Amino acid sequence: MTGRKIIASLMCVLVTGLLLTGCSTKNATDQAPKTTTFRLAENQPPDYPTTVASKKFAELVNERTKGRIKIEVYPSGQLGDEKSVIEQVQMGAIAFTRVHSSPLAEFSKPFSVFSLPYVFENENHMWKFLEGDMGTKMLDTLASSKMQGLAYYDNGARSLYFKKPVKSLEEIKGLKIRVQQNRVTMEMVNAFGASPTPMPYGEVFSSLQTGVIDSAENNFPSYYTSNHYQAAKYCLLNKHQRAPEVLLMSKFVWDKMSEEDKKILKQSALEAGKYQRQLWTAFEKDSEAKLRAAGVTITDVTDFKPWQAAVKPVIDKYGAEFKAEMEAIEKARK
């Protein structure tokens, strides 16, 4: 073989090798999973149980889709307040969020049932309902408002706290109690014989300090983290409402998911919800211990019958609007 033929042969081998290498690189690139990144809005701090659980949800989804779906959690209201975030989720600008169930009643009437006082005997009763057929169906009723419910998170029970010692239902008559802008909650406070005073959450602390209101109501963690206990050191555990949180996503984004990914999202959300309940229980106990250590007087209600009797007209009035839900709640009691 002449020198020219040897060089030509070597060039052919080199070109063939380069072509094969190029094809191999292209195939590897084509086979690599594409990552789609979504945002999840959370208005609580990074260490709050709902935020930690939402991060767990993101981890499970990322793991089970082998990196195809990445969910970034934005805590502390970075993406806006609850109302504006819900609007962005409906438009598809934000894919996921965690919100309290109360504002969802504006979009799906059955969610109003959670505002009714004393419909749940205890935590176990509530979760039996939420994890049953009716609770699951309620998550899907948000679809008409361009949202898809995924799972419930725990939010404990709401109780009253005051500027002065209060130990019974009779002692709250005539007092001004801050409430959310919610017709059922306002009528509940009226039924207690007190004066409902709706106002933004951010104004409660100063209003307690200045005497604009005598009382407010919330769960232990919120009572502690808001510093409301510094202005209202007397808590009465009347546990008048149990309303869950909801992890949801944009229906616009949901409809673009494959059936496989929808199953992954639902299952991951349910597991994150169970994880959040464990975190919440520990967080609630820790908050109670800190409140007691700070000098807060916590009084247990041992007989709920007078409280239940006082609000029966409210339940009779609004319960008729939620016949199917109330029947399911009653069934879950057994």
From TrEMBL:
One of its GO terms (biological process) is transmembrane transport. Pfam families: DctP. The keyword Aminoacyl-tRNA synthetase does not apply. InterPro entries: DctP_fam, TRAP_DctP, TRAP_DctP_sf. Keywords: Signal. One of its GO terms (molecular function) is carbohydrate binding. Residues 1-28 form the signal peptide. This is C4-dicarboxylate ABC transporter.
